[in-house]
Design brief:
Largest sheet: 6 strands, mixed
Distance between the termini: 33 Å
CATH architecture of the largest domain: 3-Layer(aba) Sandwich
CATH superfamily of the largest domain: Periplasmic binding protein-like II
Order of helices and strands: EHEHEHEEHEHHEHEHEEHHE
Number of strands: 11
Strand order of the largest sheet: 2-1-3-10-4-11
Radius of gyration: 18 Å
Helix content: 25-40%
Number of helices: 10
Shape: elongated
Structural class: alpha/beta
Strand content: 15-25%
Length: 229
């Protein structure tokens, strides 16, 4: 059997990567295994020296990892762009979120509001501070544990609303997506792929990344709620 290419990614890209890994294996015969987890944990494992071939994380984190010597110099490439959306439980009143004031009102009047430990959660906290609502919301905010999708907690009734990358909300059963944040408060995260310095197969890793950023991979990205980078 051809040696497997291993990777580490954040949870936001796991569905796309599972799809594309299958396509790559069918096309080349080379098996690919991507371990997905919370972005903070993923970066920590790379910094701790875990051996892997490719890494796919938010581009700012990838830039830091390359500067620290964990990603092969010059191997970083834009993978996908991801927007943030809001989800609720099925049957809840449909509320418009087409402008900043509507989103602000929705969050202020929510019971429990769930957010992530990733870039979308950081963006929510910036919005709450901008609106002067951080204190008022502190007892009603619920942070999903690393690696646990926000949508899962909404589906279980632990939160009334949840905010996360659209790609993470789409595959979760038992929720309804109200839509993406409006443009004036949207924050697009760009994910990048790179070759790990600890890869024993850097040439094969680069070939996989070339496929992941190719036009052939664009349909899978859109199918799972992202756009090509």
């Amino acid at each position: 059997m051809t040696d497997r290419i291993n990777g580490i990614s954040s949870m936001a890209t796991r569905q796309i990567l599972a799809d594309l890994a299958g396509s790559y294996e069918q096309r080349t015969g080379v098996p690919v295994a991507i371990s997905s987890m919370g972005g903070v944990e993923a970066a920590g494992r790379i910094r701790a020296g875990e051996a892997t071939d490719i890494v796919i994380l938010a581009s700012n984190v990838m830039q830091q990892l390359e500067a620290e010597g964990h990603i092969a110099s010059g191997s970083r490439a834009g993978f996908a762009r991801s927007s943030i959306a809001i989800a609720t439980r099925p049957g809840a009143p449909r509320t418009r979120i087409d402008d900043e004031e509507a989103v602000k009102s929705l969050i202020l009047n929510a019971g429990k509001f769930c957010y992530s430990t990733g870039p979308s959660g950081d963006h929510l906290m910036r919005l709450l501070h901008r609106w002067g609502m951080a204190g008022a919301m502190s007892q009603r905010l619920l942070q999903a544990p690393p690696g646990v999708p926000v949508g899962t907690m909404v589906a279980r009734g632990e939160a009334d609303l949840g905010l996360q990358q659209l790609s993470e909300l789409l595959p979760i059963p038992g929720i309804e997506i109200l839509g993406p944040l409006p443009p004036e408060i949207q924050a697009v995260t760009i994910f990048a792929a790179g070759v790990s310095r600890r890869s024993s197969r850097p040439k094969e890793a680069r070939a996989l990344i070339d496929f992941l950023i190719s036009a052939e991979a664009e349909k899978a990205k859109r199918r799972h709620g992202m756009e090509p980078a």
